[in-house]
Specification:
heterodimer; A: mainly alpha; Rna Polymerase Sigma Factor, Chain: A; Arc Repressor Mutant, subunit A; globular; B: alpha+beta; Immunoglobulin-like; 2 domains; 5 helices; 8 strands
Chain lengths: ~180, ~230
């Protein structure tokens, strides 16, 4: 069992250029981070490429994880999530540019049914945030998930939920405050 | 953040929007700057980041081995040196390599293995050789780029084993510089922190399980060693 202290130690040694520690960090965390990339990208090839980017980033920025006050595992998952979202956004933009059809771009924003990969990896434990999202209206919970797991902007969320942009903003901000209250309960 | 007021509410929303990636670029940068100086805001961001990470955190899926190979190649340059970056590209293989090896031996005779150590921009070289001559590797270090170019003139790892290169500076424990590339020539990246220790240090090659020492220290026999000296 790899503990938080182990991961912290491996990150600290990785920051000093210790390649054995870096390899250990990969052994300890790559399956989890690959799961994150698969969950978001739902495509093995893309997820593999992102996982490589994730560990290149970790090698170069291992000294930074304390800066934002995150636990080491949260930092690692956040790096994996952010790079996966960057790629997903690029793929979406490339798809839209290729199609050149605005309707197609909107159709891409339709709430996707989870593919087989996503269904496998989404079967993990329910979290406190899941429980709090359940207290929100379904569409609003969907908007929070859409922002985090699909990297949708306010404008894209407004399109998906067929509401004006300002309405979307107001609704999501209210939902975030409700969530925040629930999380601190 | 003031207790309970609208400012605090605003910061809570901002922190969540930042964690969700909903802020425009300029807003996100401004928020990141505030994060650095405001521990309370950092805690608020950390709370969101932690809970949201749970959404992305699904089942573990073991990635295929090629992912790690790709990371090593990308980071540590196990691929051939980038063209146009190095004078070593003029070697043209064995003949010149052997000639340079001869030159190094002459150099060792003149300068001696304890020649003046220097951490200047001068290129550093090492002739890493087994007593038997069965394993011979030349290494050239460019302090400006941190690149260590290695050329294996003789010797191959046993099947299922790897050659691992170690930096031994003074009395310090060996620090791994990575596996020798499978090809005869390649480039390793020396971490910046180790650069100043290169001059006068010893480079050594050990016999390790495939993929390298599992412990971070040499576990197999040390097969060859040589000192890092100034090339000019």
């Amino acid at each position: 069992m790899v503990t938080r202290a182990d991961i912290e130690d491996m990150l600290a040694r990785t920051a000093m250029g210790d390649r054995a520690a870096f390899a250990g960090l990969y052994r300890a965390t790559s399956a989890k981070l690959f799961g994150v990339a698969l969950r978001i990208l739902n495509d093995r090839g893309e997820a593999e490429e992102v996982l490589q980017e994730v560990f290149v980033r970790i090698w170069h920025k291992a000294d930074r994880y304390r800066a934002n006050g995150l636990s080491p595992m949260t930092w690692l998952i956040t790096v994996a999530r952010n790079l996966s979202i960057d790629r997903l956004r690029r793929l979406r933009a490339a798809g839209a540019a290729q199609g050149g059809d605005p309707d197609a771009a909107v159709a891409q924003l339709a709430d996707p049914a989870p593919g087989p990969e996503a269904q496998i990896v989404a079967a993990g434990e329910r979290t406190r945030l899941d429980a709090c999202l359940d207290e929100l209206d379904g569409a609003r919970a969907g908007a929070v998930r859409g922002a985090y797991l699909e990297g949708l902007s306010y404008a894209e969320l407004a399109v998906r939920h067929e509401v004006p942009l300002n309405t979307m903003r107001t609704w999501l901000r209210r939902s975030l405050l409700k969530l925040r209250e629930c999380l601190s309960r | 953040m003031s207790e309970g007021g609208p400012e605090r509410e605003d910061d809570r929303i901002r922190a969540a929007e930042y964690a969700l990636g909903l802020l425009a670029e300029a807003e996100a940068e401004a928020f990141a700057t505030r994060l650095r100086d405001d521990p309370e805001l950092r805690a608020e961001y950390a709370l969101w980041a932690t809970h949201l990470a749970g959404l992305a955190d699904g089942d573990k899926v073991t990635p295929p081995a090629r992912v790690w190979q790709g990371i090593e190649t990308g980071l540590f340059g196990f691929a051939p040196a980038a063209p146009g970056r190095s004078r070593w590209r003029y070697w043209g293989g064995w003949g010149l390599g052997a000639a340079l090896a001869g030159m190094l031996v002459v150099l060792l005779l003149y300068v001696g293995p304890f020649g003046p150590p220097t951490v200047s921009q001068a290129e550093l070289v090492a002739h890493i050789e087994a007593e038997s001559g069965d394993l011979r590797v030349l290494a050239g270090y460019d302090a400006a780029t941190g690149q260590l170019e290695v050329s294996r003139i003789a010797g191959e790892p046993a099947p299922g084993r790897s050659f691992e290169l170690w930096l031994i500076a003074g009395d310090a424990a060996p620090v791994s510089l990575g596996l020798l590339p499978e090809r005869a020539r390649g480039v390793l990246r020396v971490p910046d922190a180790l650069g100043p220790q290169m001059a006068g240090a010893t480079l050594a090659i050990s016999d390790e399980p495939a993929g390298g020492s599992p412990t971070g220290q040499p576990t197999g026999a040390v097969l060859a060693a040589g000192q890092v000296i100034t090339a000019s």
